[in-house]
Amino acid sequence: TNWVEIGTPGPTARNDTAMAWDGVRGKVILFGGRAAPAGTPLNDMFEWDGTTWTALTPATLPPARSQHTMTWDSVRRRVVLFGGGTATPGTVLNDTWEWDGSNWTRVTTAASPGARCGHAATFHSGRGKVVIACGENTTELLGDTWEFDGTNWVVTTPDEAPTFRSDYGFAHDAPRGNTVLFGGRNPLGQTLNDTWALRLSRWTQ
User: Fold this and answer.
1) pTM
2) Tens digits of pLDDT across the chain (205 residues)
3) For 164, which of 5, 48, 59, 71 is 20 to 30 Å away at the CA?
4) What CA–CA distances, in Å, run from 91 to 43, 84, 180, 182, 197?
């Protein structure tokens, strides 16, 4: 019914971070982002239990990054992280990582989306797969859609799809079986306000 700002110490100031629900621990996980004011990508990690932020120091952490994405895979009970930008100008990543509630593991896949940042991911509960779409690499905005089943990434080729974009909103609407995308920035630098729904492997505007 309302938003409440919770005045508790937490992660240092940052932007372009990513967060996801961790159903194993029953907490929200935050990883990385761009430090303020220097803009340096981070690889620190925190969890939020509804009251307090706590820094986590697992044995393995993904490399520092910003503009990456994370989502909770409720079937395999993992947080999945993909891509993002590094501290090296013009360098973006296409690595896949999983958080099992105690440690991060890099996942090697036979195929993978191209390196990108400014994208988003969500988990399609009906298909049991992580979905990412669009984003940008070092030279252009992207318009592809990929699904991850825990073993491999597969590109989908729907008849119709959102136009190339980055920095959009993306969430799964479980009761309707749709993954919903809204807005973003197109190759002309324009801000968009279109709405798309992905049901199974088909996009509809």
Assistant:
1) 0.95
2) 999 998 788 999 999 999 999 999 999 999 999 998 888 999 999 999 999 999 999 999 999 999 999 999 999 999 999 999 998 888 999 999 999 999 999 999 999 999 999 999 999 988 899 999 999 999 999 999 999 999 999 998 777 899 999 999 999 999 998 999 999 999 999 999 999 999 877 899 9
3) 71
4) 16, 9, 29, 26, 31
